[in-house]
Amino acid sequence: MTYDRDRIEALLDEGVRDKVYPGAVWALGDATGILAQGTTGILDPDEPDVPMRTDTVFDAASLTKILAVWSSIGALWEHGTLDLDQPLASFWQEVTGHPLGSVTARQLLTHTAGVPLRAQLKNLYGTNPDDIRRGVLHEPLHRSPGEAVEYTDRAALILGYLAEHLADQPLDQLATARTWHPLGMTGTRFGPLPAGLAARCAPTELDQNTDTHLKGVAHDFSARLLGGVCGIAGVFTVLDDLATFLRYMLGPAASHVRAGFGSEWITRSLTIETGELQPARGLFWHPAPGTTTEEDVWVHYGFTGTGMWISPTGGRWAVLLTNKLYYTRDRAPLTDIRNGFRELAFR
């Protein structure tokens, strides 16, 4: 498998010129490490002399679902603590007697559980974290489990609660202990970030309350409502840590470090688990748009402008981190760049 560095740089430079994002950081590699990496643009348009750097901290947004929830659920599954196909009510007292009790962890991981499609936590349940948790775990289903594939933040929020229940520790501590610390991911953590780290953070959307762009505080409203830590979003990370994470995913058996999850969880997750239902899904990961089953390229995105890809068959991974949300919520311009980047990184 090859790649085209010159065309990758030209593509990402164009994104800066077109104001798709202020700047971007990227890398691609294999099980041995990073093969190529680069940066373009600036950290913050308010400080035009400060360039984007490879150690820039990014609001990972929904990459939290992979870095914290998927990895922790995988660790619990490999340890024998969780059966993916057992109804939640059979081992989780909080959901016994409620609609969510009939759902399985596998259905949540494939976005086929039928849980509500929108978070709306404050509108529905107020601002108290205990009230929110109770409301989310006791709410009616949107549709019957297994009926349709519908991406929803609620799945990750519920799985985060489940992981905390099974491990008897908060999600941030669980992810740190089972994944981030063992892999040496020292630049990955839930926010809000301390001032020193926040200064290195790529700013996201304008906060109407302060008239400043969010920096070191999660963009996702649900994460902020829940104190920064939840299954939906809230993690901040750096390029090198994502490279380490994906490198491990390509070769856990050969790795000199060991996370709580290993090759069996990775293989199951990067396999279509939704049968004939569309769009196809693995366990939280999904096939990259525009790719074939033979190409075996999987992806997960983050709303702030982040994304990571992996191909076990091709032995390749790639990361593209941007703060596109600084300018707009319009997904189309970055979608084109993401797809172009993937094509050039997995040739």
TrEMBL record:
The keyword Ribosomal protein does not apply. Pfam families: Beta-lactamase. The keyword Methyltransferase does not apply. Keywords: Hydrolase. It comes from the Bacteria. One of its GO terms (molecular function) is hydrolase activity. This is Beta-lactamase.
